[in-house]
Amino acid sequence: MAPSLDHILILLPYETLTSLPSSLTDNFTISPGGSHSDGLTENKLIIFRDGSYIELIAFTPFAHESGGRSTHWWGNKKEGEFIDFALTTDSKTVDYQQNFEDVNSRLGQVSGIQYEKPRAGARIRPDGQKVEWFVTFPKVGGESGISQRGVLPFFCHDVTERRLRVPLDEKNVTHPCGALGVKKFNVFVGEKDADQLRERYGKVLGVGNSIEGNFEVPSLKCEGNLTSISVHGVLPQMEALAENLEERGGLIFGELALHGRVKERESSGKRLLHSMDPANIGLGCITLHLSSVE
After folding, report:
1. In this structure, what CATH number is given to the domain that contains residue 251?
2. So where does this one cross the membrane (predicted)?
């Protein structure tokens, strides 16, 4: 079975994390995250009923004062953008070590990329509870736009109980906007890199290649629900996209679409919830796709 979406990261300035904009607080229930064990980052969470979540993360003042940000794996990412996303597997059937071996075995058939050995991570919640996990990152480096952090997903596997990292209490997964989970999101790279990246995604997910670049992963908690991940190539004639792609080092995360349900008498359709897109070309935004309940 393909892995499931674990979480998607948005990097924010520290001041924004401590005082979130109304476009987030009015639409979502914000759950406390905590401080990571290295002291370089803190986070807050938007947790969904399907078991996935958005991680709102920021570098702490200590990260800047100590110079620690420069050595962090997301240290060169820009604030105000989606920067990465994580998958996970059911540890009862495929744990972090087995997943590492399986993914690299599949990628062995594709030149140029492997995953690093799993590394331990932790954070302390505001209530003092320590949460522990292993993360498995793809190796990065090289001149290609698809050799940077965030192009391929990383994996996150819990050591402590998942409910401690992702508390699915009813109050945490009930959002004013009605969102239930992640419907789809898009990854944009240069057209010359797109075919190679699609092949790599097929190997990482264990589902084979998709010429169109559309991949589906199952929901963690809602049986039958799927999250679509699409890999798009940007052509030079797509001027606005191509310009943004160059500014962002060859990688763009596009729209993050959530799904929800409303009563039949209420309005269904697509709504813009939060935008990080000053160019107004549909990048870096969170939308909600509502369908009516019969």
Report:
1. 3.10.180
2. none
